[in-house]
Amino acid sequence: MSQSHAPHPYQNVLAIIQSSGTGKSRTVHEVAARFFSIPVNLRFRKLGGESSSTLCSQRNQAYCGPTEHAFPHPDDQIREYMTSQKPEQAVKHFCILLKAIFDAVCEGVKEFMAPNGVPFAEAWRDHLGQAGTGSVRNQLYDDAVNNARGFKVIVVTCND
Q: 3-state SS of 35-88?
């Protein structure tokens, strides 16, 4: 995770692939204390043995797993926005959602002040908090999803 400013559009991206319960989300949480991050957790919520998502219940339950004690809680609004789109429109809506998230984060960063002596990335991570009702992170993603739903998509075709 280099901090260089080379002109490569895919730098500073890390895929973390491992079995359930091995600390992937915890690792991302800890890395976010050193590198400014916009964390999104797309896992399905599963409470008391019952899945809150039809998609989760239609799949092998191993995909969903018992998440009532998982860290961090899922960002349901992001996952639900993306899974409610028609498959052929998913990429377009993903780009719209990313723009809305970046806009919301930009506004949030403008208003945010890190406490003295605390690195900005760590303070931002702590400010966002975990996903869940009442958290800054939850409100940020609610706002982003609402803004994404309000975007008008214009399709332009070019004839040679």
A: CCCCCCCCCCCEECCEECCHHHHHCCHHHHCCCCCCCCCCCHHHHHHHHCCCHH
pLDDT at 104: 94
Neighbours of 108 (CB within 10 A): 18
Question: What confidence score (pLDDT) does residue 160 get?
Answer: 58
Burial class (CB in 10 A: 0-12, 13-18, 19+), 24: middle
Distance of CA 84 to the CA centre of its chain: 16
Amino acid, single-letter form, for residue 20 = S
d(CA 106, CA 99): 10
Cα–Cα distances (Å) from 149 to 73, 82, 99, 144, in that order, read 23, 11, 12, 9
Cα separations (Å) of 3 from 7, 13, 32, 34?
Answer: 12, 11, 14, 11
Q: Tell me, what's the pLDDT at 126?
A: 92
The conformation of residue 89, written as its DSSP 8-state character, comes to G
Residue carrying structure tokens 């998509």:
153
Furthest C-alpha separation in the chain: 58
